[in-house]
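Justification of resources, computational component.

The compute hours requested in this renewal are based largely on the per-chain cost of generating structure records like the one below. Each record pairs the submitted sequence with a full structure-token output. That output is archived, and it is also reused by downstream analysis tasks.
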Amino acid sequence: MTWSFTDSAAAFRAAAAEHLAADPARNTAVLTLMDAAGRLGWWEEADGRVTGVLVVSPPGVSAFGAMTEEAARVLRFPGSQEPTEVRGETAAVEAYAEATGRPWTPTARMRLFRLGEPTPPDPAPAGRARLAAGADVPLVAAWTREFAVAIGDEPAEDYTGFVAERISEGRLWLWEGPDGRPVSMAAVSRTIEGQARVHLVYTPPAERGRGYAAGATDAVGRAALDAGTAQVLLFTDLANPTSNALYQRLGYRPVTDHLGVTFTR
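The structure output for this chain reads:
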């Protein structure tokens, strides 16, 4: 039983394809990050089965896919590449963090949800959903920066390319208020192994409390299902009971809890 590492997404896919395809929901972070990751790893049992995967992206931040606590406990990164942050299913992250002997601090407690039967917002928000278009790039880029600040991330200098890609691929929806102005947004990742993840759910502070985010989230989830995505997923912050309740009203059901930790040395 051993961990193996590679910088090649193709080599990683060849080794871990069966494991990734067996549970794409639990492997969502790895599936959506692996092509841009600097390092990829997989845990192989004595009989040759892969039962754990991870990505390191960006450098110093490791995202775990589905893995056993045993695999997490014996995980050691090659050379001096021990991560400064780890994210993944709670049991695996805790097992890894405790086994390293390094001091660590929880930074986020999340819950992964999967969309079952879509349920429209009730009451329905005023306005309508529409796909974002090229003319919306400046507004959506500004909102994306605000979103990054709101969730505690260090914002990038420019999100133009980031949002233009999602808009050009038809993966970002806006909710327009009664006067036709965009008042909320939601995006979805590319579909990989039948799964896609809703993200960038954001409403500017002045427009909140009117159900616009529910409308945008419902629209983007339905669009993904209509396009053939088998599993539409999203993460929520467990510290935010409002969003957790909202997504369940829209038809999302819990899959597993996730934990993010930062090592202090």
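The chain has a mean pLDDT of 96. The longest strand covers residues 104-115.
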